[in-house]
Amino acid sequence: MSVGNIGVEELLRRHGAEVPQARLHKDAIQGCWAINHDEVIIGQKLGSTFQSNLFRGTWQGLEVVVKCPLLQQKGMAKHQSKGASHEGEQDAAKTAEDQEKELMHEISILQSLRHPDLVMFLGACFESEQIMFITEYMPGGDLERYYQLQRKARQAIRELLAWARALLRALSFLHGCSRRIVHRDLKPLNLLLSQDLALRVADFGISKLTWNGFCSEYIRMTGGVGSLRYMAPEVVRHEQYTEKADIYSAALILDFMSSGQALFHEHGKDPESVLQRFVNG
Fold it and tell me: pTM of this prediction?
């Protein structure tokens, strides 16, 4: 069985059964969420994260967001200078590989999740040189930019309550899964709005799967991950933490929703210095 130009058997033959891309490709075919590269039309660039590029596109007549690694090993090689060192080439390849791994991690989490308060996963394309991750398009943009554009307008209480309920329902779902999911990067930029301003949680690139009830004892959580201004103190200190770190971030987001200002904004715009002062008391 194959999809497009490269079949899953070919991927397995080339890379081995344990390679995540081959395994995910096989799951995509079996789960019917493999998308043919030729069916996706990529349009304007919407933006970038540290690891990915985001494009607006269409698939089967539906407006979608196409997410792909920021850097590709083959693409980077073309842009390296002739005098680039072998060590530099290795670093570039490693960076591209890390970005691809993060995208595949996000795909592996979202492909099995369905909830009305999460951005809908539609499928992924593994058949070309570049992996593509397809989700629904949210025309309302992210919550942070929405507030920037609406700076002079006061949010209706009904709207604020609806957003708060959506965020907390999403966390209740994620934290209540048989393998608990800790988002680890909750912030207004990762909360997207639909056409009718319904809020949905997005960006699971650094999320963590843990066994429900055993998070603090058996799963070592990496410290210092996420966005500094919304990061729980125990994460900043590289201490062991649980899904409660998400609850802390959600509380700061609720404050942002109510005020339109990021918490601690009066102490300056540099989130690292603000958070350091907070951690130091």
Answer: 0.79
